[in-house]
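User: Hi! Is it possible to get a structure for several chains at once, not just one? Here's what I have:
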Amino acid sequence: MTKHTPKARLYVTADLLAGRPVVPDREQQHYLINVMRLAAGDQVALFNGRDGEWHADIQMTGRKSCDLLPTDQTRQQVASPDLWLLFAPVKKARLDFIAQKASEMGCSRIWPVRTDYCQVARVNDDRIMANAIEAAEQTERLDIAEIMPFTPLDEALAAMESDRRLIFCDEALAGSDSAGAIATLSAAAPLQRAAVLIGPEGGFSPAERHRLDGHENCLKLSLGPRILRADTAAIAALTCYQSVCGDWVG
Amino acid sequence: MTKHTPKARLYVTADLLAGRPVVPDREQQHYLINVMRLAAGDQVALFNGRDGEWHADIQMTGRKSCDLLPTDQTRQQVASPDLWLLFAPVKKARLDFIAQKASEMGCSRIWPVRTDYCQVARVNDDRIMANAIEAAEQTERLDIAEIMPFTPLDEALAAMESDRRLIFCDEALAGSDSAGAIATLSAAAPLQRAAVLIGPEGGFSPAERHRLDGHENCLKLSLGPRILRADTAAIAALTCYQSVCGDWVG
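Assistant: Yes, the chains can be modeled jointly so their relative placement is included. Here is the combined structure:
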């Protein structure tokens, strides 16, 4: 069998089995046929979060419609680390950005939480999902992060299992003599389950800080001497976690 | 002396000395008076990359003009790590973003380089500088990264001092069994001078890879099993460097 480099990579919900055609949704068909200008016999890669990655041949079913015939499995399914990102949502463009980056960084759950200083009243879950899926397609992930609805911080904390470590990226530690992030995580490793928490611009309220300090499974992380924006802090903290406890470990 | 929290933080080029007024530029005056609505007696923070950070009082010199009177030095100057970011520039919004993030992450030099697969023909240095300054003001940095003109990769590599480690973030290592980024950097530490190199979408050409493999001071870094976008890779690589070799070390 000749292997070609697939011309696109798509997330689908259908089961992936050799020889069972998958019907991409209308938007995906438009993308494949009109945007990428693919045609019968071109190959794409598919994943659904369960069955690994498959190569599939495009079969035209009409002038502007196609289905995809899985031919061979190219990667086995692997689970993403059990790593949540809790963050106070920010303005639209930056919110898109955080959803994309959390997906690239391999988060298993993306959870916008309402904090006292959060400036955002509503969050568009579908938009977060679309960003997470697009990033997963591009980043070669085999699954999609679970997108949680916008939830008050207290409720999200209360919903955490007792063995899930809360990694609290405390901007108040910037410039302090606290241990570096890698040392802190290395001392705490292995962490099978974690949730990185990133605050809003302006940080956490005194009441929230009190609550976080008292959280029984809280690990405070310092992200260096500079005050990072929320989106930078999210990528930096997830990098540290993945490097020490997650799937970047060689 | 009563300390107030400064209402704004500005980069200026003038020397900072107690009692010697600094005249902010027109845009800064507009920002202070019209945007932030500050008035006589309000305090701002100033830095110039040489004299640490100072608090300064606003003195109105007209209805829409002011100068700033430094009163006391609040932080001593510290040097940023000698850490360059070389990157193949990308589309406008993402370029702004990389400049901001490199500044937040404490790079001493930001250097757009032309690679074989780079899609961008020209780079607006002033725009990179404006983004780097704005991020430095917000991130509590005491200096501004040096912005280099858009340069062919070969010339930038040739201009590197022999003791500057080239940290080549090789997307071809994604999913390989190579050592993790933290282990790689820990084994190479201490690195007094480094340059992180991030490729364009599509990576490096075979000729460039050959050249980079032969670079005498090259350290290949794996950023985990997923393919990261250039901007994510830049933040992730800079996080790893700062955490192991830079100023995030506690």
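Chain B has seven helices and eleven strands. The two ends of chain B are 32 Å apart (CA to CA).

User: Great, thank you!
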